[in-house]
Amino acid sequence: MFTWLPSHAPGTSYDLVIVDPPAMTSNKQQVPAVLAGYKKLYRAAARRS
Length: 49
What we know:
The protein is mainly alpha-helical. It is built from one helix and no strands. The chain has one domain. The chain is elongated, with a radius of gyration of 12 Å.
């Protein structure tokens, strides 16, 4: 998803974008990086709706 969604041409939009990412962490040390990843994903999805 992190490579697929941004690879679409600028201006490409969809009627509906569903974002349901998997859990990407199993310990507290990973939380900041995972939250940054989620933020990046949600921003990319928002630009397509």
